[in-house]
Amino acid sequence: MKVIKYLSVVMMSFALLSAVGCASTRTQSSAGEYIDDTVITTKVKAAIFNDPDLKSREINVEIFKGEVQLSGLVGTQSEINQAGTIARGIAGVTSVKNDISIK
After folding, report:
1. Which one, of 79, 88, 31, 36, lies nearest residue 57 by Cα?
2. Torsion angle, CA of 29/33/39/43, rounded to 10 degrees?
3. Percent of the chain at pLDDT exceeding 90
4. How high is the pLDDT of residue 37?
5. Model confidence pLDDT, tens digit, residues 50-97
6. Which one of 17, 41, 42, 45 has the minimum C-beta count within 10 Å?
7. Contacts by 74-83 with C-beta closer than 8 Å and gap 24+?
8. What does the mean pLDDT of the chain come to?
């Protein structure tokens, strides 16, 4: 009987640790958040690439927990603003940090 109690405690501890191991922290995203960020990254990159007003393709997109960071080089201030507007318009984006510079 003690063996069964011991094994059940060990199994429950293992299950709890496994669940906590998949949780996100301030500096690390969970598996679900990582997948969400990957989908958002793809949508933002596609929207920027397909915009006819953005002539430059030197825009980098990084996302962590829905927060988008744009960087790179473009030709004008209006292209910087347009890239930020496009990123903000994508579902799942919580905020945008626009670090794009003019060439």
Report:
1. 79
2. -80
3. 50
4. 85
5. 998 886 678 999 998 889 999 999 999 999 999 999 999 999 999 999
6. 17
7. 74/100, 74/101, 74/102, 74/103, 75/102, 75/103, 76/102, 77/102, 78/53, 79/53, 79/54, 79/55, 82/51, 82/53, 82/54, 83/48, 83/54, 83/59
8. 80
Evaluate if residue 100 carries a pLDDT over 70. Answer: yes
Domain residue limits, the chain? 26-102
Q: Does domain 26-102 have CATH number 1.10.150?
A: no
Pair of tokens at residue 18 = 């496994």
